[in-house]
Amino acid sequence: MTTWSQFTEEAPRICALFLRRHQATGNLCMLGTVRADGSPRISPIEPTIFEDMLVLAGMPNTRKFDDLARDPRFCLHTATVDTMVTDGDAKLFGTVIDEPDEALHARFAQKLFDDKGFDIRGMKFDHFYLADLTGASTVEAAEDHLDITVWKPGAGETVIRKT
Q1: pLDDT, tens digit, for every residue of 67-105?
Q2: Cβ–Cβ under 8 Å, residues 14 and 136
Q3: Cα separation of 132 and 48, whole Å?
Q4: Domains in the chain, start-ordered, CATH in brackets?
Q5: What distances in angstroms separate CA 12 from CA 29, 141, 157, one per listed residue?
Q6: Rounded distance, CA 96 to CA 39, Å?
């Protein structure tokens, strides 16, 4: 599994842009999953970096988590309203692992309470998905070109300039 620190080390440009956009939207991202019929689904989610893992957890009994239980592939896109993409955008690709460790769940719930006052301590998670990143990309716009940065685990970043 690709840890967050491995991703940060191998893809510093993408990671920095993802974190900047993630923070700018109050942690809101859009999660792409695959429905039972094979069509795509886009859902809002607030991913959290916790103990060197990207956690995709949220409200129980939602269709996005049903999708991930059936097909673990996902795309996570930083939310944007800027059609010119002047702040850039980032996409993370991967699969999820449903982690059953209740001690980890309890630590995560405590961190949510400590950081945001959101109290789910003592509640049982239906799913606790950890992202195993298999790729990432960003788009950054300038006046006369686009820089597209791509990453695959173990390969580092590659910047493609489009003029």
Answers
A1: 999 999 999 999 887 777 888 999 999 999 999 999 999
A2: yes
A3: 14
A4: 4-162 (2.30.110.10)
A5: 19, 18, 8
A6: 19
